[in-house]
Write a structure and sequence with these properties.
Elements lengths: L23 E7 L3 H17 L6 E6 L13 E4 L15 H4 L4 E5 L3 E3 L4 H6 L5 E2 L1 E5 L8 H8 L4 E4 L3 E5 L2 H14 L16 H11 L5 E2 L5 E2 L9 E3 L4 E5 L16 E2 L3 E3 L10 H13 L4 H34 L15
């Protein structure tokens, strides 16, 4: 079965039944570098594992021409031109235009799903635009929060990590994103700091939400969580529907100012930063590929993934930890390795 294209706004899919706007959908972006397409495939597989008989549809918006593997025939693609909705994080400022359903849950490509998302949609009932987080009137988040609140005349703004956005198709949601796009032109003037050299969508959408009186859903660790906020080792098993992120006793919280719960059992795990380049993300991605694309037995796929992904990583980490002091004594500190997500310098 061919992967159907769901193009915006010109080309129509060959199958008319698939052209009907769904009530609910998950949307992810795979723009620019192939690494985002590869991560989006992993996310799609984890979603499909838990939504085989679900009315929730999965959409991938991409400007890459790579074809989806055959096991993702139920994924609908939104074909975009390179730079059609800006570069970097700016593409998320157009989620109102990209949203393919009456209710859309945008999920970053570097996430994995460990359960059914029906309850997540229910948590956002009554919202036009929402996130998982809390509201703050002061502090630091890509710049001074109080300064930006005063600049636009709001008492507080949502604080969140932008791996997940809920968008309902309404005039309010259109206004939120239109405001965020307008504020992007004043990014530095509002005192906001760039991320990876480009404007970050989080403080912009946060301001748009505040201006149009949209509020976050409480961050209680049941919807989404990021390993970067926890000092313990992330535990995840997609096939069993389990995820546990926690702070190890005696270790300082990596980011205490975020006030994240000490333990989370989310249905979506967001492997941002370098966490998508190491276990357990790479181990789960390997298992998903072997089971869903190659039809391996789960036990055999698990053993193979542990031997080829987890074991080499932990041996390498152990080796580095032992010999790092000697290396630094002899050669000094190594330069930081560039992120695979950053655009290559010209």
């Amino acid at each position: 079965m061919e992967n159907s294209n769901y193009s915006l706004p010109k080309t129509r899919p060959a199958d008319p039944a698939r052209d009907v706007e769904p009530a609910r959908a998950v949307l992810t972006l795979a723009l620019g570098k192939p690494i985002y397409f590869e991560m989006a495939i992993n996310l799609a597989r984890s979603f499909l594992w838990w939504h085989r008989n679900s009315d929730i549809r999965f959409f991938m918006a991409t400007d890459l021409t790579t074809k989806l593997p055959p096991d993702l025939s139920d994924v609908r693609t939104i074909r975009l031109d390179p730079g059609q909705f800006g570069a970097g994080f700016s593409s998320k400022l157009h989620l109102d235009k990209l949203a393919p359903a009456r209710e859309t849950l945008f999920v970053d490509a570097d996430c994995l799903c460990v359960g059914n998302l029906d309850d997540v949609f229910e948590r956002f009932r009554g919202c036009d635009v929402s996130v998982v987080g809390r509201e703050e009137s002061e502090g630091e988040l890509f710049g001074d929060i109080r300064r930006r609140c005063q600049a636009v005349g709001v008492p507080a703004v949502p604080r969140f990590c932008g791996g997940l956005y809920f968008v309902r198709k309404t005039q309010v949601s259109d206004a939120v994103f239109a405001t965020a796009r307008e504020l992007e032109t004043r990014y530095e003037a509002l005192g906001m700091i760039r991320l990876r050299g480009v404007p970050n969508e989080e403080p912009l959408i946060s301001l748009g939400m505040a201006i149009h009186k949209q509020h976050p859903v409480s961050e209680d660790g049941t919807i989404k969580a990021e390993p970067m906020f926890f000092s313990g080792q992330t535990k995840i098993d997609i096939f069993e529907g389990k995820a546990r992120l926690f702070n190890r006793s005696g270790r300082a919280k990596p980011f205490p100012d975020w006030n994240i719960p000490d333990e989370a059992h989310p249905v979506i795990v967001h492997f941002n930063c370098e966490f998508a380049e190491q276990p357990p993300y790479t181990t789960e991605a390997c298992r998903l590929r072997l089971v869903m694309r190659d039809h391996w037995p789960l036990l055999l796929a698990t053993v193979y993934a542990q031997l080829t992904q987890a074991l080499p990583f932990w041996v390498s980490q152990r080796f580095k930890n032992i010999f790092r002091p000697i290396y630094r004594y002899c050669f000094g500190v190594r330069a930081i390795r560039p992120s695979a997500r950053l655009p290559e310098s010209k």
